[in-house]
Amino acid sequence: MTDPSRPAAPVLSAENEAVIQLTRKDFVSDQEVRWCPGCGDYSILAQTQKVMPDFGYPKEKIVFISGIGCSGRLPYYMNTYGFHSIHGRAPTLATGLKAARPDLMVWVITGDGDALSIGGNHVLHSMRRNVDFTMVMFNNRIYGLTKGQASPTSEFGKRTKSTPLGSVDTPIMPLTVALAAEASFVARSVDTHTEHLQKTLERAGRHVGASFVEVLQNCNIFNDGAWRDFTDREVRDDRMLVLEHGQPMIFGKDRDRGIRLRGLHPEVVQLGNGITEDDLLVHDEQSPEPYLALMLSRMFWPEFPVPVGVLRAVPRPTHDQLIADQITTAIGSGGTGDLAAALNSGETWTVD
Amino acid sequence: MTTTERERDIDVQELERVTIRFAGDSGDGMQLTGSQFTRTAAVFGNDISTLPDFPAEIRAPAGSLPGVSGFQISFSSSDIHTPGDEPDVLVAMNPAALKTNVGDLPAGGALIVNSDAFSAQNLSKAAYPSNPLTDGSLKQYSVFEIPISALNERALDGLDMTSKQKDLTKNFFALGIMFWLYERSMDPTLRWIDDKFKARPVIAEANKRALKAGYAYGETTELFHTHYRVKPAKLAPGRYRNITGNEATALGFLAASKLADRPLFYGSYPITPASDILHQLSGYKQFGVKTFQAEDEIAAIGAAIGASYGGALGLTASSGPGIALKSEALGLAVMVELPLVVVDVQRAGPSTGMPTKTEQADLLQVLFGRNSDSPVAVVAPATPAECFDLAIEAWRIALRFVTPVVYLSDAFLATGAEPWRIPDVAELPDIRVETWTDRATFQPYERDPATLARRLAVPGTPGLEHRVGGLEKADISGNVSYDPDNHHRMQLLRQEKIGRIAHDIPELGVMGPDRGDLLVLGWGSTYGAIRSAVERLQAEGQAVAHAHLRYLNPLPRNTEAVLRSFRTVLIPEVNLGQLLLLIRARFLIDAVGYNRVRGKPFRIAEIYQEAERILAEDRP
Asked: What is the pTM for the complete model shown?
């Protein structure tokens, strides 16, 4: 099966030749970056700027749209077109923009509160429509810009300013939600794993259709170390599962553990003692049905190593293409619309 | 029986104007019956005005009072402005329809009832203790009892249909009777039936038979001694069609797209009474119109803003409750300064209110229902046909001033119909504007010195990459700014930009004397009732005039001067005094209101009486 990707290198017209000469610096705006020192957002911004030249789009054809929250500032720092919209609604602007302007490459920058609380509805519907944009969701499990209230991804029982005795809300699982909403590309990465993040953003940007990328991001002021238990350098190999399409699910510093299916449930197994790679699940991001991806989306530390990488990447017609096709069909069968004919439609009569 | 004998027996009486109300169960097809009569009268050349009045329930229990659906049409050989204060003829298809409508029928009015529907069960559903057809309670009307159901079933004898299916065609029988009574041709309706039911020939045949049987019944029975003639009206020369406000609104936006040379993007969430705009625009794909049924009202306006940002005409529509949901996004469009049109087809509220009933109580919501000072332009068509012109005008202002514009329609305008003189495309205005492409001079918040419109560059324009958003902008550069003086300046700039639209729109016209005792000031769908009442007062020699606002923000530049030329200003509104509040606050003019919120348009008589009362009080 072919991956529904944009070509890695554009067709080299003279114009495109200039485009591929772009570097990270070309995508850095003149605005001073104003996140807290040590914030995970810096890394996400840097990796985003780094991968931008790879897509073959000139700067003026790229638009970053954000909502409200710390993540919402990112468009100001990208030297592309940018729109810092209102809380939770970035996907709606992106849907309209992409429908009106299929020639543009559209990115949606959002956070766990923006995407999954106030804007949850729009995430669901933009994913099911397969709007051709890349949504990057910064997940720090806290409301940072409003100074530390529980977010929809905060742990059950989490004590925050708004939940002094612990949150009574069960957290939402972002990737499960995206998959349930029929997202055609779903991935996860980590702010500090720069190489992996770059690779993931590049895959997401190349995907044609709705891409949902969860970036586990650290808010060092209001929720420091939210992911450290499995993302820290010393433990990450043992506590994270790096997904590779077509490869068995192996993890561990010594690559001696894996994921096996037992009945309908995944389990962690130690290789050896009769258990071989052949017993392990093999990752298939292109599977037509999302069962495997759904299972992966629910595996989490400490019960399981946390999966990162591309969970799902399947081809599906995009929203803007389907809209354009209907117009083409209408024009094909009845010709281009004639305004005078429309005004004069129905029964008419003449007064002399 | 020969035709000549018939003609001898039957008088033909010529009338200037007739108002008919069809009323029945919401499953009885009254809206269809009414609209077929309307088309026929319109094609014949009468001036027409209609008032559909239907329940929000799709099918309330059959025969019940809340399930009654009505359609009033007034047709005339002269220029008319309203669907008529009261019907001359009421067609009641069942007891519930009789009960809810007979109160509007004046003494001596004609009442045509389907006597077959007056069963004990239906009488009880309508809470009639006794049968009004026999208890003498209708003696002030001229009552025509016709067993429509039975006659119709007989006319359909031999067709392969169930009794229930046959009964569904009885509205065409009633329509046939009315066509005969008012000398109307059946041809437009017969053509319509053939077209509508071309895939179901039996249904088409049944409806045609029902219509013809009703007509023949009128012709051959001794029931009616008179039939009536209403000659064509002397409308201005031109080609006409019958049009509702929602149809004219949709066509106006289609035209605006062509005139602006920009594709139309329509984001919408279904809501009564605005949904027909979505239905109509979704049929214009061959014009490149992109329609988007969003997941909610917020997504609908968000997508429209995104499309406008991309250089298309981003349009959204709703009714009051949906406009409330769109408020925050509309504020974003004010801050970012993008061309955008938001349609509010107002209905009775607050909250869900009465979804199918009319009201004009969202004026203050659209002007002030957002955080902070958040000025938008507001326009309001006065008649169904005028919806076309104002839809284009809304876009002209939005593009020229780079601003959101709210277009206030209402349920009465949206569903009511009148003849529309179809304009020649060549006579429509050119509303094109250029977007900015010059790198050397681009600053996103630098403004046109005359209009204060900011420089708009759309994505895809090389070298003009920039960022916009809901945070306050620094004047000229558009960068984020928390500078106190800058914020004050930007608030003033946004307000003054809207204010300057007043230099770009027509002055407020006055129908009647330039000065005098009383000015009746209106806006929106009250136009017809006010105009007719004022004409009546003028004919009686009173110094009364009518002015009607199509622009609510900004107001036309001569508004204050017009108002100060009259001793009293009366402002009738289907709300509790919203324009009144604005006029009093803005000009310190002691205007008086006439406010009724009954979910119905004003009758001419109530405006007339209120004006009379004021004139009598003011008389020295």
From this structure: 0.94
